[in-house]
Amino acid sequence: MSLARRLWAAFVARPFGMPIPPNFFYLAAMGLLGAFVSPGFWVLGAGFEIGYLFWLANNRRFRATLEADEARDDPAERRYHRLWDTLTTARRERQRALEQRARDIVGLLDADPMMRTHTDSIEQLVWLHLRMLSADQAIAQVLVTASEESGRLQQQEDAIAARLARADLDAELRRSLEQQKQVIDARQAAHAQAGLRAERIEAELARIDQQVALIREQALLSGDEQRIGTSLDALTSAFNEADRWLDSQRDLIGALDLDDHASLPPRVLRGSVSSTPQRVSQGVSR
Prior knowledge:
Largest sheet: none
Strand content: under 5%
Mean pLDDT: 79
Helix content: over 70%
Low-confidence stretches: 273-285
Number of domains: 2
Number of helices: 11
Structural class: mainly alpha
């Protein structure tokens, strides 16, 4: 963010809950003192105001807050945080660990013009990892429901089957019970399918983790471009296969990630802003 924009943000900064920036009261007070007491207060007030604005505009915490707010307005950042915010603490830590390893790899690849073109593959894989973690989170919720209701659903199905076995059952009631049984069967099938999907996602996540760890170790230890390039080709192949499978599961992840052309925010692997920027008050006492 430019200095001019930081100065303006400092000029209108206000603590949470205050409708009017405190700086405005200071300027009004100095203006009244200059008008009714001595014009020297205008010079004194201007000096303090300029010093305050430059101090606050260059304050590390204030700048971090501005950068975090600016990042939140970026479409890529909104997509990233829409997925990130759904994750549990354990899944966030897993994503952070992968991003740190990927950040190390990107730093090494950027230093070599011949290898720099491979950074896109790393970024795409980190983004895919986040998408799969979010999908895993959604599946986990389904599995929790399945665990809680499996016994009750089976009891209901057994009771319906017993009623359907009666020969004297009314035709309308029979049709209603059969439809109810079909719904229960569909839910049980969905629960079983969710378990298979969870296993597939965990296998893909583990493969991504291991592949990224391997590339990082090769880049740090050997620096052999051929070996690193081979691993990156394998990484690209893994990405393409996992991405195709995840896209085929639209009934599961459609609500989580509708943009096929979404990408990872550049700062995630370049480290300009924290992966989880926190909003803090911009008001600073004089």
